[in-house]
Amino acid sequence: MEAFIRCYPPNLPTGTTHVWYVMRGDDLVVDTQNPAEPLPGTSQAPTSIAIRKHFPLGTQGDISVHAAIVDADCELSEGLQTVNLRNLMNHPGIRQEVIMAGSYAKELIEFQTMTKYCSRCAAPYRAIPNTWGLRCDPCKHEVFAPVSPAIIVLIHDGDRVLLTTKVGWGNRYSLVAGFAEPGESFEACVAREVREEVGVEVSTIRYVGSQCWPFPHQVMVGFLAQYKSGDIHMDAEELADAKWFDRGAMPAIPPATAISGQILDIWLHGDAQKDMIVGFDYQDYR
Ligand SMILES: [Zn+2]
To answer: Do 161 and 267 meet the contact criterion of CB atoms below 8 Å apart?
Structure first.
């Protein structure tokens, strides 16, 4: 994948072809014939729709990547539809570039459209040049798009793995996950979340990789952890079920577009004991 070079206002992307991630509310506007790709356009606008505000995101190879918003009640012309970003991430054949840029567009637009007044003194914010941040002139308070770290961890024990499911997930099981608390390392967060959600203790906590998860603005930090001790005691307020599965009798699991699916894939097809590379590239690992 070509490096994505971010740009910050007033700078603009430098690629000669242009793609547009257009948001209407929480959803992405796409071509009905090509729903897993951004809309084509010029440096000023997408081809097929009138936008309200433009957010130049960056350059990838020779492609200028833009985001934009349209009004929530904007009528879409024939051949356009909206798609929920979360559903799009499960779309077969979705490209990593599209997931990354779509996630960036969603988080940036949410921050920029919902943050108008200083949380300390209520004066209007103004843009800080060369960033997407905002500054309050009277009290000097500055804000930037928030990112909330959350851990996600696969608990393994030889040929079995401890998975959980929630109400509404149907027959699909996934990993234990939860937000980091103030004053906590990721490793301490892994041990605490595992203890709180399923009641067991883990050791040998290993970082695997991370993924932006824009619902609303997490970064999921992925780990493998060795089961150490204890019986399953499930947090029934958070979970619908938690149990061990043997490698040869796995339930439905998340797709490989999500980090949960990628970590499960590593455990199922790789070796969870093998040294993991910090900042690994899942595609290279495969
Ligand atoms: Zn202020």
So the answer is: yes
